[in-house]
Amino acid sequence: MTRQTSLNRPWQRAALALAGAAAAFGAGTAGAQETFKVGIVSFLSGQAAESFGIPAVNGAKVVVDAFNKGAAPAPYNKVGFGGMKIEAVYVDENGGATKQVQELRNLYDREKVDAVVGYVGSGDCLAVAPVAEEMKRFLILYDCGTPRIFEDNKLQYVFRTASHAAMDNVALARYLKARNVKVESFNLINQDYAWGQDSKKDFTLSMEKLYPTAKPGEDQLPKFGAGQYGTEISALMAKPAEVTHSSLWGGDLQAFVLQAAPRGLFKRTQVVFSAADHVLPGLGDKMPDGVILGARGAYGLMSPKSALNDWWWDLYSKAYNTYPVQAPYRMVQSLLGLKLAVEKAMAANGGKKPTGEQLAAALTGLEWDSPAGRIRMALGDGHQAIQDTAIGKTRYDPAKKMVVLEDIQRFPADCVNPPANMKSEDWIKAGFPGAKGCP
Amino acid sequence: MNAVVTILIDGLTYASWLFIVAVGLTLVFGVLKILNIAHGSFYAIGAYAAASFVAWAATMKWAPGFSIVAMLLAAVAVAAVMAPLTERGLLRFFYGRDEVLLVLVTYAMFLILEDVTKLLWGANPYYVSQPYSLFGNLHVGVQTWVGYDFFLVALAVVVGLAVWWVLNRTRQGKITLAVIHSAEVAASMGVNVSRVYMVAFSVGIFLAALGGAFTAPMISVQPGVSVGVIVVSFAVVIIGGLGSIEGAAVGALIVGLARSLAVHVAPVAELFSIYIVMAVVLMFRPEGLFQRTQARKI
User: Fold this and answer.
1) ipTM of the shown complex
2) A107: containing domain
């Protein structure tokens, strides 16, 4: 297991030991002498590391550091979590769901973490959620997209602080409709696992409602990490369609763009990507103009103007010399939510460090401001977040030497997420009942 | 008609890429009897080295066409550095031991090299897209293919013929075949078996790195590229027969065409198509298509 801890210098360990000794003889309230230990799990190696895992962990490092210095803007300006210094333990998500189950048990039992924030892979989330529940330990899923976690299960200790993937695909279909894009048929290329299958289904169902006469055409399902897409591109080109939808991400998405662009696919069809903002800084002018894409939230180049977003953007950009994309945005919104939940639970607990149950009660149904806008734990009995999102269109700007996003359309959370009493699939099939504020 | 041509071209281009990657794997098994899980790591290092060499060639103001030379040099450099380190420094201590142990050793190498590449090149992606546009495009009906894909077909043919010619038409090749047949008998005839192992392993690493280097223009080179390639390479060499160069060529063609047919006709069966072919071959020829039945040694 790859682990890094933010308290690994001798003076830090000495300070921690002193704090521990003081705590042993001290009063019962939490304060500077106590720490709050958070396990942060994300891909530090493997195919998801570059696009998601490492940027997210980088985001966590700068934010935890800012929290510990009390340098975040109000209402996040208390030192650490309610005065307790945050000690972060970083764990590699690579290695498959079975390994992650064991790693999660280790974090709770051996590392004695107070909370775990983690998981990019939908398969990993589906595997670890029941384990946290069985152990009655607090877990925040910060990134994975499959809607099934809270739609198929009733969970007490598990939360997801970002919207699920239904939002991304409903928003894409709504964007096409709002921009009067003519669609008689559409092709699909999605990875053959939970994320790709769910994304394909949600987009197809949304198109059935918004474009009742449009027919799904080619339906490609390459395996995760395929790398070679020549044959799939031929199949897509052989069956022309006005729109081609994809939820590819990371290295797979980059390889697809690099192989499809020279073959002219982007000129023959309107390509729409549901989660592609993270490849823009790397691909630069290799990303064709006019591609419609989402970021799984109003993130990065589509993030709203606010003091909190300005602070976060500067914090991340100065530390890593690149702007934050979706994964670090989702990480920071989870840590902001955790901070408020811990402090709320402490206030209800006489200033003492909260238990897992108290923490879960504090986060259930909570709302807070994030750099990407308001986060509301509105679904799954207060355990699943909804948030606003945005969709935009690519254009390479030679003067700025970067891809910019134009024609950005914002979608309120209540327009592109199901209501609390419906599963996303049923909601889409029923024609989005209760959707509010749609453009 | 157009559909058939498309399936054949897609199958052939995919098979060419597969063959370049898999031929080194089968060569190393044929000579050293090592199922080299770390083959994918050398493929990845080849891709990273190509990214570095092509970037270096650009700073040296080499003409764009010379990026192909830079990629070739990258593969040579990877073999020159990595082969002695791994074969002399690690693998030779395990010769004669159980084959399962050697698989575990190469798996450990795979994990270590995954982190080594991250230490050397970091986690950010590298792009080597310049060579991809060197050969223009080819238009057939509604399809457009990139000329570079056909360059890879030619490269696969050259690699296959070169390996076959060296093994069957040169003195060194015949010595290698003798070692493949029986290392003990070859040693008793005065053959320096250790040297043959070293050379064969170096060529195997070179071919893995060559596959990675010439794949680099089509992908973003980043952590994790080693994983996917090794599984499908194993399918190819198992279909063809472990240790058989001709088998690797035929195995790559079968896998390429089966996959292409599946993607065009029944996309949900893409992965299934590769492994059902492998299962059928193993049912009737458990040793693979081109592996001769081995005499049992007493």
Assistant:
1) 0.90
2) 32-164+305-386
